[in-house]
Automatic annotation (TrEMBL):
Residues 59-227 form the N-acetyltransferase domain. It comes from the Eukaryota. Keywords: Acyltransferase, Transferase. One of its GO terms (biological process) is mitotic sister chromatid cohesion. CDD domains: NAT_SF. This is N-acetyltransferase domain-containing protein. Residues 1-32 are annotated as: Disordered. GO terms for molecular function: acyltransferase activity, transferring groups other than amino-acyl groups. It holds the Pfam family Acetyltransf_1. One of its GO terms (cellular component) is NatA complex. The lineage of its organism: Eukaryota, Fungi, Dikarya, Ascomycota, Pezizomycotina.
Length: 235
């Protein structure tokens, strides 16, 4: 399981057979910050989840822009007991691949005011792609690795986190040919572990001392393979 501990981050998507990546075309060049226009354009192309129970209509899932970063930093520092570097947040804006597999959840006070300002950031998922270790068959695609997933507690139980994960899983299958989804979860985070189990993840390993600043320090490695159900919206 050490390959998951110090992963080879995938910088570019693997060559697609004859599928043009659905979202890649909307991405800016690597050295350009994602601006609001691009973000708006991408918002239109977010995968739908036809077979999942829909979210409340006042919940919006959209890409992260430069203006969101201070709010995202605050959300993550509130909810996750680990400090994240400035680079971690900068990459969301500067790296089109990371931007494509990061998604925010916004709660609008009034659904009829969707386009207006009266909304707050309530949750986020930020992922990266990990190359699988070399295997004899070499058939495995990369893994969608969840670096962070967090939702403010008053907004839990609406399926927002499930929709965030499902939308990115589906996108990562289509755009990068991933074959699995994985995450490290703090061993004391019973609720978090249960949430993953309910969504088909299983424990594939433990890493002692993974969270150096926490007590206990261990991480549970949770993982699941993707399947056609993810594309059908039954993730
Ligand atoms: C992990 C975490 C994101 C889960 O939040 P959550 O609100 O429980 O998860 P969801 O938004 O997916 O809601 C799930 C519940 O909503 C219900 N629900 C209601 N409407 C729904 C809908 N439209 N679609 C799907 N589920 C819906 C589901 O039945 C589900 O209940 P269940 O888990 O008992 O089956 C949240 O607990 C959290 O932020 N924790 C702190 C950070 C953390 O631990 N992160 C994970 C480890 S890194």
């Amino acid at each position: 399981m050490t390959w998951l501990n110090k992963p080879n981050t995938v910088r570019e998507p693997p060559p697609q057979s004859n599928n043009t990546p659905q979202h890649a075309a909307a991405l800016p060049s690597k050295d350009k910050a994602i601006d609001q226009d691009v973000a708006n354009e991408k918002k239109q192309t977010l995968a739908t989840t036809p077979n999942m129970t829909p979210l409340p209509p006042n919940v919006e899932l959209r890409p992260c822009t430069k203006d969101d970063i201070p709010h995202l930093k605050r959300l993550i520092s509130l909810l996750l007991p680990i400090p994240y570097s400035d680079k971690f947040f900068r990459e969301i804006i500067e790296d089109p691949l990371i931007n494509n597999i990061t998604l925010l959840a916004l709660w609008h006070d009034d659904v009829s005011l969707k386009a207006a300002q009266k909304c707050r950031l309530v949750g986020a998922i930020r992922c990266r792609l990990l190359a699988h270790p070399p295997s004899p068959s070499q058939t495995d695609g990369p893994m969608l690795y969840l670096s962070t997933l967090a939702l403010l507690s008053p907004y839990r139980g609406h399926g927002i986190a499930a929709h965030l994960l499902h939308t990115l899983t589906r996108r990562a299958i289509e755009d990068y040919g991933i074959s699995s989804v994985g995450a490290h979860v703090w061993e004391a985070n019973e609720l978090g572990l249960e949430w993953y189990r309910k969504r088909g993840f299983r424990e594939v390993g433990r890493e002692e001392g993974y969270y150096r600043r926490l007590e206990p320090k261990g991480a549970v490695v949770m993982q699941r393979d993707v399947s056609v159900m993810d594309l059908l919206g039954k993730g």
